[in-house]
């Protein structure tokens, strides 16, 4: 079976013994969703809608509905399968059983090569330079320094996860709470302005005629499509906890309560922040200004002298939180991929510290190698794009499972019970008291039921503290077909639209088609690796999944 050591066990002496609690899991989601987007993206999206407040808010509402459908789909997969690390990897393997290992290789190249933290590392460097210079225009900043600071950002995060992992968890918990408080502050200020409670700041008339276009000029369909694309991208991160379920203290509670709460909280705050922006900032200023919309907002309230320094620091902290949680979660997935030889040099990357270094290498290369102009948008698009194809495959797979519930033993026909069945298996297959005496009360047990799970489930574990709850039956979630259809249509749009040339297209340093071509090419490269994997590993070393029924 190979190395099945938990990343929390003593063999990795620098990793935490603590499992992730509710706050940490909420922070994993909040930190990934809230990066730079809410402080900057609303401005260009508002411009794409030609200042139509109703259309602008409707697009964000639609985006929230789409990502909540995605969350429910991921929850249905997670609650029908053993709780383990890997996220989409496990869901793909459950749906696409043959050829064995193909989807694992395809997914591995996507998450390893393109699951980097380069975008927010670069943004961290940019906003730190904004704070240092007091200027918010990119022309005044040396891009080489921005990249150097970005390398320092990802290096700090990786070092923290390796050397001081408990402190790393506490830091991203703090930053998650910090981000929420910043958004609450913006909402509170907007509320005060709305009721006339803030002297010197007048309420705008943006809500007088919410469906009116600026100068009665309607946007074209391409602009609306780009706006929707930007909106959906801004919600990326709701799936982050699914990557690390083995490291979670109570996966069922996290999946059914904490994860939906985090997504609902974040999307609600997003929407209220947008309203606050519109209360304080006249639409003409949003349409004509190229600076951060949050910069305009704080200038109105606090004045430019404070905003020019303070706001970039706040945003850079937001970027740091994103890099912390992405580097952690994706490295855990890298480790999971290495367990089954889905990546080259798998035996080396089965150590979490080495998996963290792999994430660092890819992030630095993507951060440094592309040309400076247009780098941020390109990196962000390249990071997000392959996930749209993965989501399409998962959604189609879920439709198949739903239509063949009895045959596939899905939903109410699924015999897996995350609590009761585990207790029965443990009592039948092992002496619990001897395990406790051997491993200690605080150690995490690793267990693979002989009858139900393949060797791919070697990280399925139950702690001694959880056994008292193991007699409580758990239920699964069944997403309505309308929710599945919404998410499928949205991802087909996200996958195909980037290939459409924009109107009046002019050649740029990075062509518009570059990121979808590279993103799709990496998935194809993973399929190629599947065919050459037998040449790299002997048959005895390749871990094929023997039984996907309960995986």
Automatic annotation (TrEMBL):
PANTHER family: AMINO ACID TRANSPORTER (PTHR11785), LOW-AFFINITY METHIONINE PERMEASE (PTHR11785:SF382)
This protein's record includes keyword Transmembrane helix: yes
Membrane topology, record value: Multi-pass membrane protein
UniProt KW Transferase keyword: no
Subcellular location: Membrane
Keyword annotations of the record: Membrane, Transmembrane, Transmembrane helix
GO MF term list: L-amino acid transmembrane transporter activity
GO cellular-component term (any): membrane
Regions crossing the membrane: 20-41, 53-75, 101-124, 145-164, 176-198, 255-279, 309-330, 351-370, 382-401, 476-500, 512-532
Protein name per the record: High-affinity methionine permease
Superkingdom field: Eukaryota
InterPro entries tied to this protein: AA/rel_permease1, AminoAcid_Transporter
């Amino acid at each position: 079976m190979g190395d099945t050591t938990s990343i929390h066990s003593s063999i990795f002496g620098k990793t935490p013994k603590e499992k992730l609690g509710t706050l940490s899991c909420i922070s994993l989601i909040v930190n990934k969703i809230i990066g730079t987007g809410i402080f900057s993206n609303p401005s260009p999206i508002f411009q794409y809608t030609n200042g139509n407040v109703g259309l602008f808010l409707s697009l964000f509402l639609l985006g929230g509905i789409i990502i909540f459908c995605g969350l429910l789909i991921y929850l249905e997969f997670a609650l029908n399968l053993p709780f383990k690390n890997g996220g989409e990897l496990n869901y793909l393997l459950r749906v696409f059983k043959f050829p064995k290992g193909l989807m694992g290789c395809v997914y591995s190249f996507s998450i390893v090569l393109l699951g980097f933290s380069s975008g927010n590392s670069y943004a961290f460097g940019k906003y730190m330079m904004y704070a240092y210079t007091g200027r918010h225009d990119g022309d005044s900043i040396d891009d080489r320094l921005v990249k150097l600071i970005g390398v320092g950002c990802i290096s700090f995060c990786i070092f923290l996860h390796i050397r001081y992992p408990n402190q790393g968890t506490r830091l991203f918990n703090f930053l998650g709470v910090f981000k929420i408080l910043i958004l609450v502050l913006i909402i509170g200020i907007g509320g005060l302005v709305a009721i006339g409670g803030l002297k010197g700041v007048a309420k705008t008339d943006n809500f007088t005629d919410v469906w009116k276009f600026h100068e009665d000029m309607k946007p074209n369909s391409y602009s609306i499509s780009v706006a929707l694309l930007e909106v959906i991208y801004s919600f990326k991160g709701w799936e982050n906890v699914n990557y690390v379920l083995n490291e979670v203290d109570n996966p069922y509670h996290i999946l059914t309560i904490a994860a939906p709460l985090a997504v609902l909280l974040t999307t609600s705050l997003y929407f209220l922040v947008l309203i606050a922006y519109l209360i304080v900032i006249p639409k003409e200023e949003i349409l004509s200004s190229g600076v951060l919309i949050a910069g305009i907002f704080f200038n109105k309230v606090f004045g430019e002298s404070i905003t020019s320094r303070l706001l970039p620091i706040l945003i850079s902290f937001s970027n740091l939180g994103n890099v912390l949680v992405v580097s952690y979660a994706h490295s855990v997935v890298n480790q999971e991929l290495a367990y089954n030889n889905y990546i080259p040099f798998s035996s080396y990357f089965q150590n979490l510290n080495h998996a963290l270094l792999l994430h660092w290498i890819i992030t630095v290369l993507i951060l440094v190698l592309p040309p400076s102009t247009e780098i941020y948008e390109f990196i962000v698009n390249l990071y997000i794009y392959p996930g749209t194809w993965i989501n399409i495959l998962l959604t189609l797979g879920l439709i198949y499972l739903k239509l063949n519930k009895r045959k596939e033993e899905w939903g109410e026909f699924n015999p897996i019970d995350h609590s009761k069945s585990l207790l029965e298996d443990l009592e039948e297959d092992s002496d619990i008291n001897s395990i406790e005496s051997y491993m200690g009360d605080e150690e995490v047990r690793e267990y693979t039921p002989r009858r139900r799970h393949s060797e791919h489930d070697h990280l399925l574990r139950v702690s001694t503290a959880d056994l008292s709850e193991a007699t409580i039956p758990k239920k699964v979630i069944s997403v309505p077909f309308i929710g599945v259809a919404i998410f499928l249509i949205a991802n087909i749009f996200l996958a195909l639209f980037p290939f459409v040339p924009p109107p009046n297209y002019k050649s740029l340093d990075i062509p518009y088609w570059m990121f979808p071509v590279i993103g799709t090419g990496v998935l194809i490269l993973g399929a190629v690796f599947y065919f050459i994997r037998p040449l790299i590993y002997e048959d005895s070393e390749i871990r094929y999944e023997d039984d996907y029924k309960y995986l």
